[in-house]
Amino acid sequence: MAEGFINQSSTGTKGFKYTGDDCFNQLLCRSFFTDITCDEYGEVVQVRMHGVIHQFAQEIARIVFRRKVGVVVDVDMNSEGISMVLPFGGQHDHARNLQTLIISPCVELSGAVLSRSLVEFKRLRSLDLSCSGIRKLSSRISVLRKLRYLNLSHTLVRKLPSSLTRLAYLQTLDLTSCYYLKVLPEKMSKLTQLRQLDLSQCNSLSYFPCGIGLLTSLKSMPLFVLDQSHGAGLRELQKLSDLGGELQIQNLENVKETSEATDAELKKKKRIHHLGLSWGHNVDECYRVLECLEPSPTLRVLDLMGYGAYGFPSWIPKIEGLVKISITDCRCVKLPTLGQLPFLKEILLKGLAEVRSIGQEFYGHDSSDVFPSLEQLKLYDMPKLYRWSSRPTFAAGSSGVFLPRLKTLTIAGCHKLKRLPPLPSVTDLVVWKSNSKILASLTSIRSLLSLVVNDMEMRESFVGSKGSSLVKKLIIVRGRDLYEIISNNHLNQFAFLNHMVIQHCLKLKTVSLFGLGSLRKLNIVGCENLSLVQLPTETTELVIEDCPKIETFGENAYLSNCLRKLIIRNCLLLGVLPSGKEGLRALEYLLVSRCPRLERRLEEEREKISHVPCIIIGDGALFGTKTFDDSKI
Predict the structure, then answer these.
(1) Which sign, positive or negative, has the C-alpha torsion 174, 177, 180, 184?
(2) pTM (2 d.p.)
(3) CB 341 within 8 A of CB 363
């Protein structure tokens, strides 16, 4: 669009974006593109061209864009001139004909150099300054009167010049991740052709200028910030009827009247798929404001942050298209009713300090199924949560199901929660800084395949537990009593365990895992007091990192037939490799780094590892001639 391939006469009443979408969809239907990737909203985000078509497109580009596209690759610090290449051929002395100029991210471009150079490119339609390191955009940007696309993303700009508003044809202004940007030009309303205003991750932006609602061509504006004393209010969103994609509205505590929220008419904006609403602090009117900000039923993602009311408005259970919801740092006591939403797949509840129970109000009443599509549930930092009810009320005569598709459950910072309800389909469980009695609920999760336990005591819960027999992957981080669990063979209940990871268990001194006959992969990281490791006979992969006191491995006569991959990093006292009677004859990949004793010994006895196809020692010196295929393990 910036290059003018879609002209005004061909768009009719649709507008540039939708005409461009039509062109793209026609090419899609005719198999012009392959390997199509869609986002969570079903929108195409990535495609590939067939090799022959791509080659043909390159040839066309060389003709169409010859002498029209330039890339700045260097800046002469003495003359402060720029060095440029034309990727499609031609000479750079035709700068006045360029329509697209891209600044290479490796170029440090000052505002002064840019200011002097702009007058040479008066025909530019597209200017990409992203990641260029500029701190100030020159006021002479207004000489680029034909500019349609300006990308300043990931730069250090703090303020935009008022002359920017003279770019009457500007359609896209990308300011993504301009973390230091504080204000926008006061006369932004002059940019009447603007279709995309991307301010994602502009965390220092304090308000929007008045008149932003006059930009009625806007199709995308991911961020809208309210200020208490001046700037644009919620009513300015009313006329932006074509807004789509993501919209995050911040500082809703600054809404003075609930009528402002009503006048925003979010319910009519059916192209908005992702809505975020956040309050900086609690106010008395937050319930009524949220009630008036009811979105379209077609909304797919909803984020609520800092909301301070007791409960939630009745429109939340009515958003039947909702796929994902997050409720963060809210002072609510009751949870919204979400259990009857047919397409809801992900829920995040975080920092809900006043919520005490999960029960019928969360599930909904008289439903046939409860959370029929939910796949991922995360509960973070809910210190008063003590009860999770497992008996939802189903509709009369219905044999409804409860969480039939839930696969991943994460529980962190829930110190009072002691029991989980029966979860027949959960395969991945993460428990972090919570009540250790939760682990006793493993008996009710028969489908569990992966378990992560972080910063908890496990001894009481692991003893005699029978629900963990199918677990194939076990990750233990900062296990306070792991030494006792290993010593007493309590891990032997994991009869099908294939992969075990042990991280930052500071009290752990020895690891002996002979009882885990199915174990194939073992990772040990950051165990500062570990001195001895004894491996099961069938181990195929071993990774040991940041264990400064480990000196040796227990000898296993059968290990030589199995171990194929061995990585050892930062083990200062270690001077030997694990081995059996016949050496590591199956080993195919060996990496040793920051292990001075072991490195010296391997240099002296290189013949003992000469059969290993791929060896990396010390500073990355590579021995052997083959690469290693992890997929074979």
Answers:
(1) positive
(2) 0.85
(3) no
Which helix (H) or strand (E) is 459 found in, with range?
helix 459-462
Query: From CA 570, how far away is CA 173, in angstroms rounded?
Result: 48
Phi, psi of 590 (to 5 degrees): -135, 125
| 551-603: pLDDT as tens digits | 888 776 566 678 899 999 999 999 888 876 567 888 999 999 999 999 998 88
Contact between 126 and 3 under an 8 Å Cβ cutoff? The reply is yes
Nearest-angstrom CA–CA distance, 569 and 619? 11
Structure-token pair, residue 282: 């609690």
Q: What is the pLDDT of residues 19-74, one digit of tens each?
A: 767 777 777 776 777 777 777 666 777 778 777 776 666 555 555 554 455 565 44
Closest listed residue to residue 382, CA positions, set 347, 427, 408:
347
CA atoms within 13 A on the CB side of 149: 14
Q: What gap in Å lies between CA 45 and CA 571, rounded to an integer?
A: 44
| Residue 326, strand partner residues | 303, 348
Backbone phi and psi for residue 439, each to the nearest 5 degrees, phi listed first: -65, -20
Judge contact between 502 and 476, C-beta under 8 A.
yes
Burial tier of 535 (Cβ tally within 10 Å: 0-12, 13-18, 19+): buried
Cβ atoms of 613 and 591 closer than 8 Å = no
Phi and psi at 428, nearest 5°, equal -130, 120
Which of 630, 633, 579 lies closest to 608, judged by CA? 579
CA 495 to the chain's CA centroid: 34
Given a contact cutoff of 8 angstroms between Cβ atoms, the answer to whether 82 and 72 are in contact is yes
Per residue in 455-474, pLDDT (tens digit) is 988 776 665 555 567 899 99
In 291-352, which ranges are E strands? 301-305, 324-328, 346-350
- Measure the CA–CA gap between 178 and 200, rounded to whole angstroms: 8
Q: Measuring CA to CA, how many Å separate 382 from each of 27, 330, 378, 379, 455?
A: 50, 11, 11, 7, 17
Contact 125, 149 (CB under 8 A): yes
Q: Amino acid identity, residue 143?
A: V
Backbone angles phi, psi at 191, to 5 degrees: -85, 65
Q: For residue 21, what are the contacts with CB-CB under 8 A and spacing of at least 6?
A: none
Taking the C-alpha atoms of residue 487 and residue 504, their distance in angstroms, rounded to an integer, is 18
Q: What distance in Å separates the CA atoms of residue 466 and residue 228, rounded to the nearest whole number?
A: 58
Backbone angles phi, psi at 572, to 5 degrees: -65, -35
- Other C-beta atoms within 10 Å of 314: how many? 11
Which one, of 425, 380, 385, 389, lies nearest residue 406 by Cα? 425
Asked if 164 contacts 140 with a C-beta cutoff of 8 angstroms, the reply is no
Q: 579-612: buried (b, 16+ CB within 10 Å) or exposed (e) per residue?
A: bbeeebebbbbbbbbbbeebbebbeeeeeebeeb
Tell me if 347 sits within 8 A of 378, measured CB to CB: yes
Number of other residues whose CB lies within 10 A of the CB of residue 424: 13
d(CA 361, CA 393): 10
Alpha-carbon distance of 527 to 512, in angstroms, equals: 14
Indicate whether 404 pLDDT > 80.
Answer: yes
Residue 388 has pLDDT above 90, yes or no: yes
